[in-house]
Amino acid sequence: MRTIAIAFSAAVLAAGAAYAHGSLSVHPAQQTAGTLTCITKLEASLIFGRTPVADCTFVAERGGFRQTYAAVLTRIGQVRDVETAQRITWRVLTKDGFARPGMLSDFFTVPPSQSENVSVRAVPQMVGRTASLQLLSHSGQTSSKFALTHPRIDLAASEPTLTR
Fold this sequence. Notes:
alpha+beta
């Protein structure tokens, strides 16, 4: 009887571990909520040192709503002077694909598990609390190089609501 109880307990523990591993490793599919386009401001970068500052516009995929944001792009590694404004475009992903006012007022980072492999990834992704940003294009350099040198972006809403 004792052997059966031990075997049963081991089976229950193994099944529970397999279930937990499967449910923790599966990420819910995210849907496209819209596009965020940022243009760096050279005059503001002078005030903040060589930290790039940008004006951003989020456009919702459903309904065409817009919201403006201000961004500070944290930079690591070699800093070079940028003489022209840079245009950076992200796909914004959320769990349900809907846009909400101020949903991008957050900081976004490259997850530690992805930062090592970002040069291999075709589309680097930055994660925040309520959304993720998937880098689509950057006017000054390749997407993977941009993600390696800018591992964090802080966004703050410039206007309180979504507008048409």
